[in-house]
Specification:
13 strands, 44% helix, single chain, globular, 484 residues, 2 domains, alpha/beta, 18 helices, Nitrilase/N-carbamoyl-D-aminoacid amidohydrolase
């Protein structure tokens, strides 16, 4: 459990990548001392619990916004997610023990199993691929390798690097090879970052609005007008250069989207009739959607994207209709109120082009983002006010930047209370606003890079490498069973 807690320190905001390598080194060392797969499963489960408990401790924050009503659920949430995700690593460790016949094959199988489990986390139980081992490199040039490998392949190499001392008879040989490999990726990343920056001050300008509305007051009706006026004032703020579009955060507008609403005209007027992307709820045929709408001249609704990856227990309750009893103690109506969208995943922002639309945590799904039709960039609206002020918003932002590196596309990110930013096609921050600040970003729109290797191949290379690794382990096991 201590090893897992240490390994979690590689994630933002601490970003101690060496701590993660050390944690996996200790966990792999415990694995190779096991004498049965059940023992390996227990070690993997406890290691995973320590890792996810610390890395995802921010998960208690949503329950503390209205602590008097929901605070009692916070311990169950963090323990539940630690146990649930820890069980997946329990399976990975058990599989590594079962497939391996010695230290080398068990370490190889462990790295492959952890990567495959990470891939599965994009799909299982509606998906939650947060805190992948690859993300420990988010603040280093090594992250640039995502453009070639993707996050799951980099997770495989990260686990392998941490446990490399077990791959050879002399531990220092593995350490030297792992260190050399990290150095090579680091230098390759530095070279990629030093290439000509894909942004020019002559490019069209975009404004990102960060209103910094306190989450416990956001849905209090007595503050609705004040919050709306704050958004209008920030939108209308004078700019040194002509603006082509403005972006508001997720559900920045607390009213429902309806054609002809006078408030839409007010938004257009504040923006001088430039396109404004606003996070807003809308009703259609009795169903409610979490949406991103583009407001054009005179309040006209130009585009609407409805969120497709809904947050379990935040925007809906999984399998609610299957339950043989009615839930009590939860605001079931609000939790199950949103419907999954099915609209095209892009919106147009005038002269800036067409953008892939992402709402809140949709940005943490590499496959979901990669499979959308390629556009001029990505626009993400989010409300990280639910995530507290420490690790949650930092990790969410880091993962969104990883999508830029993977696809070679710029990112426009508007967050209610931060972190809002304009990010270039290599995941580098052009401009940003920190947590807890109200203001605007006026920045030139970065241009996209050519499609990356990962955007073309996806996780197919990972699949072949994993199959080769597991096949090698099976062959070794079969070889030992052959008579002399």
């Amino acid at each position: 459990m201590i090893a897992g807690a240490v390994a979690a320190q590689g994630h933002a905001p601490l970003s101690f990548a060496l701590a993660t390598l050390a944690g996996f080194a200790l966990a792999a060392g415990l694995l190779v001392t096991c004498t049965a797969w059940r023992q390996a499963a227990v070690i993997g489960g406890v290691f995973g619990f320590g890792y996810f408990f610390v890395a995802l401790f921010w998960i208690i924050e949503p329950f503390l916004v209205y602590a008097s009503e929901d605070g009692w659920m916070a311990p169950f949430a963090i323990i539940g997610i630690g146990v649930g995700l820890g069980l997946l690593w329990s399976v990975a460790f058990a599989l590594a023990y079962a497939l391996g016949v010695n230290d080398q094959t068990r370490v190889l199988a462990l790295a492959a199993a952890i990567a495959l489990v990470g891939l599965l986390r994009e799909f299982l139980f509606t998906g939650f691929p947060w805190a992948l081992p690859a993300y420990i490199w988010s603040e280093t040039p090594v992250a640039q390798s995502l453009a070639w490998l993707g996050p799951h392949f980099l997770s495989f190499l990260t686990v392998l690097a941490g446990a490399a001392y077990l791959l050879f008879r002399r531990p220092y040989v593995g350490v030297i090879i792992a260190t050399s490999g990290i150095a090579v990726f680091w230098l390759m990343g530095e070279v990629r970052l030093k290439e000509t920056r894909w942004v020019s001050m002559s490019e069209p300008m975009i404004r990102v609005v960060q209103p910094n509305v306190q989450q416990d007051k956001k849905w209090d009706r007595q503050y609705f007008q004040d919050h709306f006026i704050r958004l209008l004032v920030l939108t209308a703020k004078e700019s040194e250069s002509p603006l082509e579009a403005i972006v508001w955060p997720e559900t920045a507008a607390t009213f429902l989207l309806e054609s002809g609403d006078e408030r839409l005209n007010m938004i257009s007027a504040a923006a001088n009739d430039k396109p404004v992307a606003i996070g807003i709820r809308r009703l259609m045929e009795g169903r409610q959607y979490n949406s991103l709408a583009i407001i054009g001249q005179k309040g006209a609704i130009k585009d609407v994207y409805d969120k497709q990856k809904l947050v379990p227990f935040g925007e809906y309750i999984p399998f609610l209709s299957w339950l043989p009893f009615r839930l009590s103690g939860l605001d079931v109506q609000s939790l199950s109120r949103f419907t999954r969208g099915s609209s095209e995943r892009f919106v147009e922002l005038g002269q800036l082009g067409t953008f892939m639309a992402l709402i809140c945590y949709e940005s943490i799904f590499p496959r979901f983002v990669r499979q959308a039709p390629r556009r001029d960039g990505m626009v993400q609206v989010t409300n990280d006010g639910w995530f507290g002020t420490f690790s949650g918003p930092q990790q969410h932002f880091a993962q969104a930047r990883m999508r830029s590196i993977e696809l070679g596309l710029p990112l426009i990110r508007a967050a209610n209370s931060g972190i809002s930013a304009v990010v270039d096609s290599r995941g580098q921050i052009i401009q940003s606003l920190p947590l807890g600040v109200a203001g605007v970003i006026d920045a030139p729109m970065p241009v996209p890079l050519p499609p990356t290797i990962y955007s073309r191949t996806g996780d197919l290379p990972l699949f072949f490498v994993m199959m080769a690794a597991l096949g090698f382990c099976l062959a070794k096991r079969k070889g030992l069973r052959q008579p002399d």
